[in-house]
Amino acid sequence: MRKEDLFKKNHLLGIEFDRYLLEHPELLERIPEDAEIFFLPDEDPELSQENLRMAEQRKAEGGKVVFVRIGRLSPPRSRLQDVRLESVVS
After folding, report:
1. Which of 5, 58, 69 minimizes the C-alpha distance to 34?
2. What is the DSSP letter of 62?
3. How many domains does the chain have?
4. For residue 85, is pLDDT > 90?
5. What is the CATH classification number for the domain harbouring 21?
6. For residue range 21-78, what is the model confidence (pLDDT) as tens digits?
7. Is residue 10 classed as helix, strand or coil in its secondary structure?
8. Is residue 28 part of a domain?
9. What's the rounded Cα separation, in Å, for the pair 13 and 19?
10. How many whole angstroms separate alpha carbon 39 and alpha carbon 43?
11. Which of 13, 50, 52, 69 is in the most buried spot, having the most CB atoms within 10 Å?
């Protein structure tokens, strides 16, 4: 997997996980402050394998690792409401 793809996928999951933590703050208490989080999405085995590889490297260096298993990711959709175009410039 290209580094750019790895970054984009993990970045998206990181944003979604931040949103999830806002709704489930009790999980945040279970994550050590100095731990690195690695996502293991069931729907993307290639990303999971790459993240597992990086996590093992981090653990070998003495770091703390937390795995977040993700069953599925809902399709993206906008949360905007009552949207109107006020003016159109041509």
Report:
1. 58
2. T
3. 1
4. no
5. 3.40.1350
6. 999 999 999 999 999 999 999 999 999 999 999 999 999 999 999 999 999 988 888 8
7. helix
8. yes
9. 10
10. 11
11. 13
pLDDT at res. 45: 97
| Domain range for 63 | 3-70
Please state the φ and ψ torsions of residue 86, each to the nearest 5 degrees: -85, -35
Please report whether residue 57 resides in a domain: yes
Q: Domain for residue 54, yes or no?
A: yes
Q: Comparing C-alpha atoms, which of 57, 64, 61, 9 is closest to residue 37?
A: 64
Q: Considering the entire predicted model, what is its pTM?
A: 0.82
Q: Is residue 83 part of a domain?
A: no
Task: Kindly list the distances between the CA atom of residue 69 and the CA atoms of 29, 31, 42, 77, 85, in Å, as whole numbers in the listed order.
Answer: 17, 14, 7, 22, 41
Question: Where residue 84 falls among pLDDT bands split at 50, 70, 90?
Answer: confident
Quickly count helices (H) and strands (E) in the chain. Answer: 2, 2
